[in-house]
Design a protein that fits this description.
- The protein is of the alpha/beta class.
- It has 13 helices and 16 strands.
- The structure holds adenosine-5'-diphosphate, aspartic acid (ASP) and magnesium ion.
- Magnesium ion binds next to loops.
């Protein structure tokens, strides 16, 4: 049993879908679950539909959705010719659900509507990929992942119900996958009331890891537009080099600090069952890729850049010390706002926190703490993290034209907050 995950970049157009189909044909057999993301930038485009809907204009929302329909129509006419293939009807049924939602008056909560609309991207892409595979002679079964991936109702950040999902994997997925390829959606799930949820942006890697864990896969492969894991994002560091293998723990550290090549929640379900994660290139599928779950041999310094950071400084209004109970209150406020502290530092009468700049979450923290603290914020900052730095060359290189507002060094890890 294997699990393959294909992200948006791999299925961004008809040529991409043909390429993915040929990879499945070459490297997959039965006993394979294929998890697919929405095509290209579809999730962002669907977010625009939701924004237009809530800003009050059904016409604007319909126009934003027409862009999504047109993009997929272009892909489908290239893959299936014009009009008569059954895939067109299947897509019409998906579109009708969204149209219907857009005609509703705006009574429902934003996050709920977001999930009902944004989730459609994965349904569309998986229907197209499944149909194209069948067309190419690769028989497969399309699975609506909402039949098995059961979650709570925390819309946009739904939490998977492991025991319900496991029992549905056992009863629905296992009997089918033993002699078939299953094509299904990443990123989405379903509440006990049968409402669609999403697991958080970029969550398809995580979906694939849940399948791998619950089906006891030999390995999971995530097919990316890079040769594998490198010692820095090659879009940022032109000298980034490929890494053959890394341990699960190193991958956890990298993703914790913000390496986007793997979704942070992906590692644990695999590590728990010692299932290797292969990060391979869909552009060069012959390449063997990086094995996550191997050994760390002489790792080079690994650089991670996290942009759009905000530095929040809290000063006690009455100049009292930031003692244990005060720190506890600060942590509780961040945790209630679901805002992770990416860096922090405590002074006598102040506390500094570095977080992703998400205004609505920061506002929640501010409301909770403003009676006791003066609150100031500096935006547009970057965290540079370097794991396994042996000297300061990389740090100085990156810092040369920037100022550091905060720096922290441990033997294994450097972190700098840079303007
Ligand atoms: P997906 O198509 O599965 O959503 P992503 O775009 O999320 O894939 O992840 C692949 C991207 O991750 C690469 O294009 C690269 O820019 C970025 N990336 C960030 N850090 C690294 C790293 N250390 N090694 C390789 N790629 C990285
Ligand atoms: N399509 C979703 C997103 O863009 C999930 C994913 O790609 O992993 O966030
Ligand atoms: Mg992605």
């Amino acid at each position: 049993m294997k699990v393959f995950k294909f992200g948006g970049a791999s299925v961004k157009d008809a040529a991409g879908i043909r390429n993915v189909a040929s990879i499945i044909q070459q490297y997959g057999e039965k006993n394979l679950v294929v998890v697919v993301s929405a095509t290209g930038k579809t999730t962002n485009a669907l977010e625009d539909v939701v924004k237009a809907y809530f800003s009050g204009s059904t016409d604007d929302a319909m126009a934003a959705f027409a862009i999504v329909k047109n993009n997929h129509h272009t892909i489908c006419t290239e893959l299936f010719g014009s009009g008569t293939h059954p895939v067109f009807d299947k897509l019409q049924n998906i579109y009708a659900e969204v149209d219907w939602q857009l005609e509703e008056d705006r009574k429902e909560a934003y996050n709920y509507v977001y999930d009902q609309i944004v989730s459609q991207g994965e349904l569309i892409s998986s229907v197209i990929l499944s149909a194209y595979l069948n067309e190419s002679g690769v028989q497969n079964t399309w699975l609506d992942v909402r039949d098995v991936m059961k979650t709570d109702d925390t819309y946009r950040e739904a939490v998977v119900d492991w025991s319900k999902t496991q029992s549905l994997m056992d009863s629905i997925v296992k009997p089918v996958v033993k002699d078939s390829i299953i094509v299904t959606q990443g990123f989405i799930g379903c509440t006990p009331e049968n409402c669609t949820t999403t697991l958080g942006r970029e969550g398809s890697d995580y979906t694939a890891a849940i399948f791998a864990n619950m089906l006891d896969a030999e390995h999971q492969t995530i097919w990316k537009d890079v040769p594998g894991v490198m010692n820095g994002d090659p879009r940022v560091f032109s000298d980034a080099v490929f890494i053959d293998e890394i341990s699960f723990n190193e991958a956890v550290e990298m993703t914790f600090y913000g390496a986007t090549v793997i979704h942070p929640k992906t590692i644990k379900p695999l590590q728990n069952k010692n299932i290797p994660l292969l990060v391979r290139s869909f552009i060069n599928p012959e390449g063997k890729g990086t094995k996550v779950g191997g050994e760390d041999h002489n790792l080079p310094p690994i650089r991670i850049v996290k942009n759009s950071q905000a530095l929040i400084t809290l000063h006690t209004k009455d100049f009292s010390f930031v003692e244990d109970e005060v720190v506890a209150e600060i942590f509780t406020s961040f945790s209630n706002a679901n805002l992770k502290l990416n860096m922090m530092q405590q002074g006598a009468i102040s506390f500094e926190a570095v977080v992703d700049n998400i205004p609505e979450k920061i506002e929640k923290v501010k409301n909770a703490l403003q009676d006791k603290f003066d609150f100031s914020i500096v935006e547009n900052l970057t965290i540079l993290t370097i794991r396994h730095y042996s000297n300061f060359d990389y740090i100085n290189q990156f810092k040369s034209d920037r100022k550091a507002l905060l720096e922290q060094r441990r033997p294994s890890t450097y972190q700098g907050l840079l303007v």
